[in-house]
Amino acid sequence: MKDILVLRELEQIKAIAHPYRLEIIESFEEASATAKQIADKMGEPHAKVNYHIKTLLKVGILELIEEKVKLGIVEKYYMPSARNFVIDRNILNTGENNVLESLEQASISIFESISKDFYRAVEYTNEKENPKKFLYYYDYYLTLEEIAELQNKLESVYVEFLQDKKDKNRSNTKRYSISSLMIPRVRDKK
User: What is the reported pLDDT for 24?
Assistant: First the structure.
């Protein structure tokens, strides 16, 4: 598995723009799995999960790792083709009509996934097992250049601090989703 896969095609962006497909990708964690195993983990119908896995496979976001025959049935094991997916900025210059719409949908899907995790974590109140999370939320007035500078600084801190923390077998650890969000405040004009 690669560390990063740069998405350069509109079909790849459309594939990950679907929130359900993001859930499927996240369900793999660090091990390969069959569509049935992912469906069971998600509590979803096998056929539905299998359909979306085929879409992700077709555009290279998932890879077929191996096939095993059990009791005359072929089990296909899949794995995300990378740990992280990054959208190539040059795709904005392709002139394709649906690029911005697909990028917006991908952003919304990622935000919805983070939101679900956030609300689940807030509802879980056992302080001993789940101590208070760090939350930093304020409004600031920044230029586009300042936003880019802040994103670069945060990314370097994340990369430096988290580079050796992907091993889920380290003792006394718990899985955390770590994200930063910078969005312009938009108010409806009346």
Answer: 92
